[in-house]
Amino acid sequence: MGMLFLIVEDDRKIRKFINFSLRSQEYDCIEAATGKEAMRLITTQNLVAIILDLGLPDMDGVELIKQVREFSDIPIVVVSARDQDNEKVEALDAGADDYLTKPFSIKELLARIRVVLRHSNGNKKEDAPVVYKVADLEVDLEKHKVTLEGKDIHFTPMEYNVLTLLIKNSGKVLTHKYILKEVWGTYLDSEIQSVRVFMASIRRKLEKNPAKPRYILTEVGIGYRFADE
Questions:
Q1: Higher pLDDT, residue 127 or 207
Q2: pTM of the model
């Protein structure tokens, strides 16, 4: 058996559609229609990723994410009809790796899956890259050096910490809360403005047009994502 995915979705038609789409990419799939069945499979099967609907009949999908995160860092991609920003933030803060709102294109789902798998595999490597290159930007984590088009760019220690957090999680949406906890060590709603100030400063140094960023993308109402290619 190859790469095994778990599809957790109570709507049979959507479940079969996702299953068919993943199998067309030569992925293997198993399915669950309830949170209870999903937990049984998660704890007994060797999975590479979970595709999760939040609206399950026996429990809330966010609660399932929290339970899984107590013992596993397996990639979780949420697919849900809930399109409110606070719902997305809640799922991401609980530990989801990405979030797609229904209806979604299968092309987009497959692209998101490739990102979380790449990110997951990168975390498993003992020798993580010390030099990250994206377009004209190069960040050397060992030397704490940032260059853009071959020119050194000066960052304050805090700006550098924010930038490297984004880069190490490239392609993944990081919520304001996650960034604050990782960089500042605390989280208060009043501090979200601090994150925005730092992002604006970083963008002024990196982006030719900060209003149309190439590297640091805003997920409105949720947080930020570093372009992974």
A1: 207
A2: 0.64
